[in-house]
Amino acid sequence: MRTSLSLIGLLAVAGSTIISACVTPETPLPNTILEGFRIQFQNTSYPAVHKLHMNTKLAGGGDRHIFTDPVGDKVYNMTLVDGVITNTWAEGTIRAVIGGEHSNIDNTDKIFMTGRNNPYAIYKPTWGCDPDTDLPQVELVFQGHRQGTTFVPGGWSCIRPTYDGAYEYRYYPPGNTGEYSTSSFFLLLRSLLAC
């Protein structure tokens, strides 16, 4: 049986009215999901990225950088551990963190996978509705980042185009005064559990 999860990069459309037949369960969701899943970006406002999948590409020091199709290795076994996207590779256990390749243009930082002690990107599982099928799905809402026991709330996860026709995963901090353009945009993310 295939179950679905969704990750949301937090996007609210002001003033829009959404009519939906979707009814979500009232059951609270845990912050840990150990059944492996594949992440699919989901944003009907941006057809160029809607339904693209998250891949990882081996980088220096055992890190894995996060891209969309067609760049990188397909990953079907992501998990969520205490709100952090986690995976185990030959390089060891790595987690989604914030803090690499800062961009002065839009004041964003790379979100990537590493075993190092960078601030963890934190997500909260909630119920939502698939925008294409109107079926209930589990969604992870980006909450902020955590370094040790210190949690910093806010900000957004976003993606932007790369030089090779793909998109990379970025962190857009709260109060960001960097130049915002259509090259960086907030998005909905969807992840499907592997069979």
UniProtKB/TrEMBL annotation:
Signal peptide feature range: 1-21
Annotated keywords: Signal
InterPro entries: DUF7909
DUF7909 domain mapped to chain residues: 24-178
One Pfam family from the record: DUF7909
Source organism superkingdom: Eukaryota
Entry keyword annotation includes Magnesium: no
Protein name in UniProt: DUF7909 domain-containing protein
Record organism: Magnaporthiopsis poae (strain ATCC 64411 / 73-15) (Kentucky bluegrass fungus)
